[in-house]
Design a protein that fits this description.
Elements (H helix, E strand, L loop, with lengths): L2 H20 L9 H13 L4 H7 L3 E9 H4 L7 H11 L21 E11 L5 E4 L1 H4 L4 E5 L5 E10 L4 E5 L9 E2 L10 E6 L7 E12 L7 E4 L11 E4 L3 E9 L10 E5 H14 L5 E2 L2 E5 L2 H6 L8 E6 L4 H5 L6 E5 L2 E2 L5 H7 L6 E8 L2 E8 L1 E2 L15 E2 L4 H5 L2 E5 L2 H7 L5 E6 L1 H5 L7 E5 L2 E2 L3 H9 L7 E7 L2 E7 L5
Parallel strand pairs: 7-12
Antiparallel strand pairs: 1-2, 1-4, 2-3, 3-6, 4-5, 5-6, 8-9, 8-11, 9-10, 10-13, 11-12, 12-13, 14-21, 15-16, 16-17, 17-18, 17-19, 19-20, 22-23, 23-24, 24-25, 25-26, 25-27, 27-28
Amino acid sequence: MSAARLRPSLQALALAAAFGAAGSLALFTPTPSLAQAAATNARGLPDFTDLVDLVGPSVVNIRTLERAAARGNAEGGPDEEMLEFFRRFGIPIPPGVTPRGPRQGPPSDEARPRGVGSGFVLSADGFIMTNAHVVDGADELIVTLADKREFKARIVGADARTDVAVVKIEATGLVPVKVGDINRLRVGEWVMAIGSPFGLENTVTAGIVSAKQRDTGDYLPFIQTDVAINPGNSGGPLINMRGEVVGINSQIYSRSGGFQGISFAIPIDEAVRVSNELRASGRVTRGRIGVRIDQVGKEVAESLGMAQPKGALVRGVEPDSPAAKAGVEPGDIILKFDGKEIDKSVDLPRLVGNTKPGTRSTMTVLRRGSQRELNVVIAELEPERPEARAAAPEPKPVPSNNATQSLGLTLAELGADDAKALKVKGGVRVIGVAGPATRAGLREGDVIVAVANTEVSSVKDVEAVLAKLDKSKPVNLLLRRGEWAQYAVVRPQAR
């Protein structure tokens, strides 16, 4: 009999012996040693009661109000979903949670509930931290402390990019939180959240840290947890087992709108840095260099001889921007900023944004297979300007040879006026794609400015470069699509 078949048999015999010897479940009563071990395990489980007592007085509920006269006939919002939640489970409807159906009758100046969020006391003199989206668009803010005292609050400042806001109340006897060291936070450790999900004040939930530095495409990397977070938790603290705040609960990943096991918190070190600027000037000053970037793909990295895909691919450079003045070109890959490696493209705007405008910084870029150092003077981040699009010039067809045909490309010359309009030194226009070119993502109207890390200014240049390459290996093309640059890796058609 195999070991796999023997194991169930032994288990059956053991159960039979247990039941047969005593005729009851008495034999399953734990021995003193087992009971002691079980008690030890129970004592080893995290106990959050002391943390709640310690941090609970620092957590606040934030209700936002809006003036009907300013909003007109506001249409229904998500608060109706909250009401359904309370009806279903028989929970008393908390203050501030009301339906938002179309307003009837003449407008009035009466303030009405708009939303519910959370926050925590940052300092004893009345500064409170929360999410920017909690206070966005509010005409009035009401802060309710853990001891049930209520105060009107004013917005000191809010930063939409990091979703951090600071509000101020005039109150005494406030208990500020203790700020933790984010560098000590470890994946797998227990954390706790206190907030007002669905308006239910002082709700405590717990879980573990699932990941650090989670990139969601936002301006900041997030702390990922499995702590239950729902609408109304936003702005509340994420607390470690030492009673320190390590993050601000900000987002959830959900297909239903409710908690599904993935929550995100803003790291407290970033939040404090932003809050200090908001308290000092009411706004956050960030640096910019004026580039549009993208992630470097694996195939592109291999075609450029990079050991691994990293850095930020420059797709476009704004005219007269710091990057343009520094000599950055579309197609460059920025590998380092001020000596710090760019692992993912999102690292670059975070590093640049945290650099004071006017600072002279250095960048290491990869351009057509070779690295070079560029100096750039950081400017202040401005509101985004609308994208300008160059008009597509009429192509001038050129017969394709075998080399370009093997890539599925039909090319045309790019005139001087066209090159000027596209802000390129030269290149060739793609007027037809098939097979390999189509699979690589090329489109009609693309302008090829480099082939295999070699600049090209004519169809003959393209043919000359291709003639020197191994016809069986992929070839990288640097493209301009409108104002933006990108790489494509084309695998030649097998003969």
